[in-house]
Every structure is written in structure tokens, then in C-alpha cells.
């Protein structure tokens, strides 16, 4: 049998209090409060990537400037337009498969300055 943890004896455990004045909580600055830049002033880069994906290709959209909420919404609209899956991670929009032409056309239609990055 394993030994029991004695955190409760040392006082290292979690403390619960119903008194809101007892602790000062730091409020993080959300990136949602950033002023949004109009699409015509943003230059997005679209590229194809196969690295560390088991040979499967994904279309990447980089350099979006705006809040995380706007980035997520743009990613959702792109996935719906292309009819494929994908995700939004670390400021990048990942679209499954080689969807460069559809992505470029959609972003240009939305008013973004778009440039293809990489070969082919």
C-alpha cells in the first residue's frame, strides 16, 4: 500500500473562503479589448504545411491582428466555407487539407490583403 499524503498536516492544501474581501484577485487583461483592425489593413499569409502531421497537409492562415474572439470567428467561417475541419491555435488558423485556393478566394472576398506563402 502507498503512503498517505500529509499535505493537510503541512497546510499545503487548497483553502476555501466565502469572504470576498479576504483575497485580492488579479484580473488578467483580455485580448478582446484590443481595437480591431479593418480587414483592408491586414495582410494575411496562407501556406501549406505537412511538418509533424504524419504526412497530412494543412492550410495555415497567419498574421491575423485582432482579438481571439475575432480569430475564432474567422476560423469558423473559413472551415464552413471550405467544408472541412480545422482549429485555431497560437494565433494561427489551421484548415485540414490543401484548401489554399478556397481560403485565398474567401479572404480576398472578405476584404483582407492575402498573400500565398511557400512554393507550388
Topology (SSEs and partners):
Elements: H1 7-10, E1 43-49, E2 58-62, H2 68-82, E3 86-89, E4 92-96, H3 100-109, E5 113-116
Parallel strand pairs: 1-5
Antiparallel strand pairs: 1-2, 2-4, 3-4
Can you give a write-up of this model?
With 120 residues, the protein is of the alpha+beta class. It has a domain at 39-120: SUI1-like domain (Translation Initiation Factor Eif1, 2-Layer Sandwich), CATH 3.30.780.10. The chain is 24% helix and 21% strand. It contains three helices and five strands. The protein has helices spanning 7-10, 68-82, 100-109, and strands at residues 43-49, 58-62, 86-89, 92-96, 113-116. The protein starts with 6 loop residues before the first helix and ends with a strand.
- State the name of the first-level CATH class of the domain at 39-120: Alpha Beta
Residue runs with pLDDT of under 50 for 5 or more positions: none
CATH superfamily grouping of the domain at 39-120: SUI1-like domain
Question: Helices and strands, in N-to-C order?
Answer: HEEHEEHE
CATH architecture of the domain at 39-120: 2-Layer Sandwich
| SS element count, helices | 3
**Gap between N and C termini:** 61 Å
Query: Hey, roughly how much beta strand do the residues contain?
Result: 15-25%
**Largest sheet composition:** 5 strands, mixed
Structural class, judged by helices and strands?
alpha+beta
Strand order of the main beta sheet, please? 3-4-2-1-5
Helix content: 10-25%
Radius of gyration: 22 Å
